[in-house]
Amino acid sequence: MASFQFVIKDAKGARSEGLIKAATMDEAIDKLTREGGTIISVKSSGEGAFSGKMSLFDKLMLTIYKIRTGIGLRTLVFFTRQLATMFSAGLTIEKSISNLEKGEKSKKFRAVLTKLANDIKKGFSLSEAMEQHPGVFNPLYVSLVKAGEVSGTLHTVLDELSEYLEKIEDTRRKVWSALAYPIFIIVVLAIVVVILFYHIIPMFARVYENFNAELPGPTLMAIAISNFIRDNIFFALLLVLAAFMAFFLFYLTDKGKYIVDSFVLRFPVIGNMLKNSIFSKFSRTFSILMSSGVPIMETLELVENVVQNAVIQTAIYKARVMVKEGYSVAGAFKKTGVFPPTLLQLIATGEETGDMDKLLGKAAEFFEKLVDSVIDRLTSLIEPVLIILMAGVVGTIIIVIYLPIFKLGLAISEGAK
To answer: Are 155 and 80 in contact (CB under 8 A)?
Structure first.
């Protein structure tokens, strides 16, 4: 007989989960129905947590596939909201997707919707059809839809999922809006520096060469760098491209991702903002998975994949192993030493009261407010800091260029005396 993992709620609304032996899933559902309570989800215990690790080549191929087939988060948010609205209004899933397909402007996503509609016509469930498009619908999305199908609350799950994606998209937009200005300034600064070394410094070098002037060390170094860039421009571009590809491949490895993500989290101000953003996403994801009836082990696995930071992912993985060994969720997270006390306290209270999904939702709101406050401070501080940085770099290069003229002027003034 096979084992099936279940999540049920009793008449008072208390959540419980465990394993049940049965020959088939239908038999498992019949047994649980006879025992009373409301079935939230039932699935084979062989599915879900502790899947094998991917090789570097598999990660590279998956990344390329997601880039080639993926869609923007805003498009997915709009699709989910529209699907939830149409389904709640009484339309079938097949009809809802067909209507959305007709109005979709993106050819890439329209092809996905066409395939979804065709698969559903063939008898596939919505979650099974979505599983065929991992570049568009991630495991979290598919698991929530599957939980809604099993529990008969798909319309509610779609509403919650659309709200969840809207909040995630809003938090991501805030973080990127805070980072966009410094990234833009740094790119402009790099372009200005390249123009100075490629075009401006050679002009001054020819003038100094005509006068047979004795140049100071900093100016000679600047001219040497300029000559290297001009003589090896294509090699330099290939070198930059190779460095970028090497960093990309390094980041795809488990160790490389951990090192880079660890450095990013320690970066002043920005690291704190990203950390709060991750904990907000962690809490929001955990909350919606728990409220949708997804088993705790699968919830932890999905949350681990959603946070997209190797340091936090490693901590969640360790906590997942400890929970499987019998630790409480709050106790397991506390032992990792990564999660903040506020979040741990809310998880512990949620375990005691059975309202973990609601308290995790409050935790998500708390961390979202922290992100907003950090962004406000960052916005006020970053502009003067970047202006000083740009002035310092460009000013230093200009001073180095004009240093021989300054020395000549000083020599003339001393000679006049």
So the answer is: no
